Amino acid sequence: MLQVMPNVALALHLLNERYNPKSFWKPYIDILPATFSLPLWFDRSQLELLTGSPCLSDSLQHVRSVGKLYSHLHKLLRAHGDTSIYLYSVGFYYDDFVWAVSAVMSRQNEIPHERDETQSKLALIPLWDMCNHWPGSISTDFDAELRTCDCFSPSAVRTGKELRIFYGARSNAELFLHQGFVYPPNTGDTLRIKLGLSSGEDSVTKSMKSRLLTKLDIPLSGVFHVLAAEDPFTPQLKAFVRVFTAKSEDLQRYGA
């Protein structure tokens, strides 16, 4: 399971090192935040504030997924019985697992694998992962020979001033769900909306709409994006709405 879920493997490794009092990584782990402003940490009243936002269903899905993962991993660790593993000897607690998942979710980065540079793996990069987000362009690279993360500032940074980096083109919903903050003037912001053909429509009309959408290479149901731009509606969204609201005679005219 962990081979196909490297983020979970990294979270377990982080938690195991946190439990190890002699860990090489102890100075780094000790300065990681004790709590996170992620939906995983929200109580019911805080989650209810997301009512009406697509982030609510995504947040609830995160909570459910982490809960199921914890339950499954807890059973595996109890069956393993290896006291040399700190996760077993100290105890595997849900709150600690949520902490580790949150740390990895908000800080993980892909770097080339040391044994095969065509492959990548997830890693935490001490200190660099403390940098806050700032709009711009990617200015970080990885030196495969020296195995170092090289970050370049687009402008001079005066003594005592904060060094910030560009996290990448992400919507505020993605930043909120995975990093725990939003950036209001985010020019790359998008609104995700879930749309699909009506199940209550008569079978003939629905079949015509399905054929036309398939011909246009547009999914019959899925997530569409509204952009933070002068023209916020993507061509795909416009086409879907036209087909969704079309009458039978219109569908016939378009060869559905």
TrEMBL record:
CDD domains: SET_SETD3. Transmembrane segments: none annotated. Gene3D superfamilies: Rubisco LSMT, substrate-binding domain (3.90.1420.10), set domain protein methyltransferase, domain 1 (3.90.1410.10). One of its GO terms (biological process) is methylation. Its EC number is 2.1.1.85. It catalyses: L-histidyl-[protein] + S-adenosyl-L-methionine = N(tele)-methyl-L-histidyl-[protein] + S-adenosyl-L-homocysteine + H(+). Keywords: Methyltransferase, S-adenosyl-L-methionine, Transferase. It comes from the Eukaryota. The keyword S-adenosyl-L-methionine applies. The keyword Cell membrane does not apply. InterPro entries: Rubisco_LSMT_subst-bd_sf, SET_dom_sf, SETD3, SETD3_SET, SETD3_SETD6_MTase. GO terms for molecular function: protein-L-histidine N-tele-methyltransferase activity; protein-lysine N-methyltransferase activity. PROSITE patterns: SAM_MT85_SETD3. Belongs to the class V-like SAM-binding methyltransferase superfamily. SETD3 actin-histidine methyltransferase family. This is protein-histidine N-methyltransferase.
